[in-house]
């Protein structure tokens, strides 16, 4: 009887040690699910555009209200500089070499050029009326600017920082995306429910593709096979096959979608839904929404870090940039959630209580056995 009790006690102690070892591992190496908000960075002044440096170390955030750009050190999630721009910045883009940022100023019909080395304005380029979207060719030689009111696209030579070509005939030009081989530019025509395809060799519109109502944001997959276009009024995304220049799928997302970004591996497209206060995550293999990320506020601009690790979203009405982890990984703060910790403590208390009861019963049995002998 006594030996049986001792054996049970030993087993209980071994199980307790194993349990505490597992609990320690959980506390020091917790994980968090994919597509969860990991950080919120306060930037203020209605941020409405964001771009990430090629090395994924800095973010550049345009402020529509006060005409400035915040430079964020992503390793510290803190602002390191404020750069003055023109009136009502609309969009920002970083050159492939990471040396310059081009920002559209919709209120002053110009583009600001910022040196990322000094974080200072080095040039201001006059363009069309109410410039909104901006995209830079993969070789960094040209910048394409969508001018909404003048229904045109300005082409800037980055060597001279001057407009070399103006492409006319668009309708309320808004978003811009450039194929990764640099051969074509896709511009959303928000006034005509279409996307204009521009051949960069001739800088002429070679195709016009009908999509949904008020197309705004546009993004292209890294392999160049598909273009994703956000239709604001229809609460949908049109998928364009670039070989045939036809819409092959229409995906319903949240309410008031505005912008879209595709991950570097091309597997997912993220869409901001202003009125739903959420992000829709689209699996590009199936063209279905596989996840919805709820946010606190109205999301506007969106971009994915070049290394694919995070998605950055501006929340205009709260003056913040939300950082979203794209994959399951160790939590950044090194702690599990309050709920998980509470459950862990309860389990530990129960296990300890059961062991104490077992010890008490074993001791009582030994006492009875001793008295009997």
| Spatial shape | elongated
Give the N-to-C terminal Cα separation: 13 Å
The radius of gyration is: 28 Å
What low-confidence regions span 5 or more consecutive residues with pLDDT below 50?
A: 28-32, 329-337
CATH class of the largest domain: Mainly Beta
CATH fold-level name of the largest domain: Methylamine Dehydrogenase, Chain H
Question: What is the typical, i.e. mean, pLDDT?
Answer: 88
Number of discrete domains:
2
Structural class: alpha+beta
* Name given to the CATH architecture of the largest domain: 7 Propeller
Helix content: 10-25%
* Beta-strand fraction estimate: over 45%
Tell me the number of helical segments per DSSP (H or I, 4 or more residues long).
Answer: 2
Q: Write out the CATH superfamily name of the largest domain.
A: YVTN repeat-like/Quinoprotein amine dehydrogenase
Largest sheet data: 4 strands, antiparallel
- Order the strands across the largest sheet as they lie in space: 2-29-28-27
How many E-type strands? 30
Could you walk me through the main structural features you see in this protein, from its secondary elements to its overall organization?
The protein has helices spanning 2-28, 338-372, and strands at 31-32, 36-42, 47-52, 58-63, 68-73, 78-84, 89-94, 100-105, 110-115, 120-126, 131-136, 142-147, 152-157, 162-167, 173-178, 184-189, 194-199, 204-210, 215-220, 226-231, 236-241, 246-252, 257-262, 268-273, 278-283, 288-294, 299-304, 310-315, 320-325, 329-330. It has 373 residues and is an alpha+beta fold. The strands form 8 sheets. Strands 2-29-28-27 form a 4-stranded antiparallel β-sheet, with no helix packed on it. It has a 4-stranded antiparallel β-sheet with strand order 3-4-5-6, with no helix packed on it. The radius of gyration is 28 Å and the shape is elongated. The model is unreliable at 28-32 and 329-337 (pLDDT under 50).
